[in-house]
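G., before I forget:
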Amino acid sequence: MVALCILSAFSLVYYNGPPTIPQPELITKNRFMPNRVWSTMGEGFGYGVTDNLGYNNAYYNNCTDPDVVVVGSSHMEAVHVPATANCTDVLNKLFAEDEREDNDLKCLNIGRSGSFFDQSASYFETIAEYFDTARYIVVETKSLGWTVEQLDGMLNQEYRKDMKERSLAANIAVSIPYFRIFAKQFGELFPLKPAEEPLPLSTDQDGEEYASKMNAVIEMMATQARENGKELIILHHNTYSYEDMENAISDDDPEQMKVLEESCKKNGVVLVDVVDDFISHYKETYQLAYGFANSQIGEGHLNRLGHSIIANELYAAINKLENSIN
Amino acid sequence: MQIVSIIFFGFLAIVFSLLYVCNKFVKNTDKKISVFKWILLIASYIFVIYADYRFAVILFVISFCAYFVAKKGKYYAIGIIIPILALGYFKYTNFFIESFVNILGRDYTLLNLILPLGISFYSFSAISYMVDVKRGKIEPRSFRDVALYVSYFPKITSGPIQRSSDFFNEVDNEVKIGWETFLPGIQIFAFGLFKKIVVADRLSVFVNQVYDAPLAFSSLTVFLATLAYSLQIYFDFSGYSDMAIGVSKIIGINLPRNFNLPYLSRNVTELWKRWHISLSSWLQEYLYISLGGSRKGKIRTYVNLILTMVIGGIWHGANWTYIIWGLLHGVALAVHKVWMLITKSPDKKHGAVSNVVSIVITFLFVNFCWIFFRAPSFDVAVTIIGRIVAFDAGITQIFAWFIFAVIVYIIGMTCAVVKSKREGLVSRKHNMCPVEGYYPLMDLSKFTSQVIFFVFLGLIIALAHTGGSPFIYGNY
């Protein structure tokens, strides 16, 4: 017991993600316990307090009337950087410091670890309906390779993973900080079954069919957004490979990237693709947008730099949209 | 099966239980020792068969060869050549094909060979047994005993390469199994586990990335990566050795220490008394001395040193970089021998500053040599070295776990230095460091010790790198 207390005290600093609870509004698969201190030192150095809604927002603690909703995976959840450094909070700061009176847009981050594009597409209609005040919904994606079957699944909203209530025993277990990291580490060190991967990248398949399905998914989401008075913005980011100081190449499949660009263009959806910005920044400063001092360089999750670049690009894109409306 | 796996822990639990029952219920001492050996032998073969039954066949053949030759008291040359041939075939065939056919400019097809588990280590064990019998150091043993010595599962994968006489001294006597062996053994194992999955595996992340694309990183980062590799290989290999020693201790058999704070060495001669001790002493006893040692004049001594270290380098792997690594150490040993002759440094006292400078220079030299050891090719090694001295900009990363590893090493070193000073340890020669490493074992019957131990275990699990990284010496 004494050892468990000491280890739990250590875990409160090293790995203290708040327990997850069901999301009754079904806008994401689950949410964090609201108003809980969290910290992550395993990858990156993140810390903060969850907001009143159970997500990672520091700038606005109880943003029930956002203008911009940011949806995505662990990159948007952003527990690897301090709460004030995630792209949504940086975006909030940019809007707040904007001198234009009517440009004080409020942004809400509902990113959740494991909620890749497939889940975002499946929850999108609910999100669009739920946030009355929102004018923009930003959907983040990193991987572009899905099979035609998976794209069909998104069209049929098959990838919802609504969380069920935990048992009492499970709730007690997750309330002890050390048990959470123990379960995570033990499961990874001694896996009983292979780890669940995100949707695998597409294998060889009919390019035309892939393009057609991808276009259908983007069209579906754009329509759902507009029916609820919102505009869809697709945010794409990805890692890049570097052999030396001069050269860096995006890890994207160029054909798949082309399909995404064309689908967005066809449906009037703004695509914010930050990969080139990441690469330009790397060539100028040798700084990478992914990775941390305690993890793989240039791999893993977005770091402060990555979030900052994304925030600035989203800020520019949303301002452009706002100006076109006005 | 991996030594860090649920299945191995289950396997060990079964072996321990069987030995415990044997200890408790078999009354006759001779019978007890015999049953004990059979249990260990069967367990060792199960361990190997689990990896691949064909490995067990090769192991059996080499063990039988060693037994037969020693029993007959003749055909020693053939007996020694057989394990060398087996090692050469599985480990070096493709290397020779690639290297020499490239020179001839011909096309080639590599053979589809898998390196049998532990062959680099147990072939040396088999050779040492035969030579010890030939030299009259030990009597020929039964096949069961020889097979057990060669296949003993805690040390088969990556050593230590224990002398046959020492091993038989352990297993020929009644072993008490119980808390008195389990408690120290589990602590030593945990110590090794911490070194491997917390420190070494974390460092590997940084080292691998830099070595994969050195031209993208700044000179400082590349240099730090080379230092990180020096620590990685130490923590990885000494960690594995600790785990092997700990597992063996649990089942009542003592294995020899394999590392003794090698980076405290003041010169390269001392380094090889502190680094991979079982291999360096094997090379000295069975190769260097067999070549003539220092008995055939100065020039021949230096040649023998260089040749021994080059063969030691080749033993590590089928790559020219290992040969260069061995050559560098061989030349350094020869140069140091000359230095000792000229300056009489073993007989002269040295000041603190001189000692520190010696330690730093030795470490930097060893670090330089590790570049060749780690690099996948000579070209990459040269690129790494070129990058360091270029003082160029690039991606700069001060890896947090590298700082952690340095702190851990300094703490360990400091504790050993303090303990050695308290015990008044003195080195045999003035140019050697009078510090001995030790395992900080606690009395786990005490509450405070239990708390500390469980906190330590909990931290190992919390901080472990889960990305996985194979034992470096498991590849050899």
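The mean pLDDT of chain A is 89. The first strand of chain A starts at residue 15 and ends at 16.

More on Monday.
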